[in-house]
Each structure stands twice: as structure tokens, then as C-alpha cells.
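Sample A.
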Amino acid sequence: MQIRDGQMIEIVYMDKLGNLSQRKIEVVGIRDGRLRAHCLTAGAPRVFIVANILAWRRVGEKRYA
């Protein structure tokens, strides 16, 4: 599976302080190790470091990749 622009996905993410969060996002683009998205959980645009995405799945799937 590959993350693509426009996908709605759910991620498990670790921030720079080591805090974990689970978020639903709509992918805007991926470049230079960063994923730009609209975070549906926060209701705002966010940038995620791809290496810090611990697990992800398309919204509606039953398993994480």
C-alpha cells in the first residue's frame, strides 16, 4: 500500500517530544520526507514527518499498514 494525494487516511503519529496521537487526515501532498495534510481531527492544516508515522490505514479499512 502506498499513501497518495487526496487519500483520507488514519495515522498513528509520534511527535518530536515522543507523544503519540491518532488522527484522521486528508493527504494534500508528500515531498522531502514531509506529508502535508488537512487534519480532520484538529480541523486545520498540518505537516507530518513521514518517518514519524508509525502506522496508517485508509479510512474504512480494518487493519494498519
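Sample B.
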Amino acid sequence: MISEGTALTFAVIFGIITVLLVRSRDVRAWEAVCVGLFGVYLGQTPVIHTIHGLVTWTITGFSHT
């Protein structure tokens, strides 16, 4: 289960990225994924558990030493 604090943290991070992308008016594929993730974390849809697992898996994969 995802906690409110974790969801809020991800929503803020993806929200900041979204604002910066919208201001630049040039959205690439990976940037569109960030905007979509912001919407999922902000909306707290039922699919968030699957997406959060994928995001966590990706982040730990990049940060694993």
C-alpha cells in the first residue's frame, strides 16, 4: 500500500517537472511520461499501486550500486 506522504512527494516532484515542461513548450516522449505520472499520483487512481511499483523498481534500478 502506498502512503499519503509518498504519493504527495511523487506528485510534487512530477508536478514541478510538469510545470517546467509546459513552460518550455517542447514535450518529448519521456517528458510526456512524467506528465502522465503526475496525473496518476495526483488523482490517486486504483492503478497507482502498479505504477508505483514500476516507478520504485526503476528508481532503485538506477540508484543501485
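B remarks: The longest helix spans residues 4-24. The mean pLDDT is 76.
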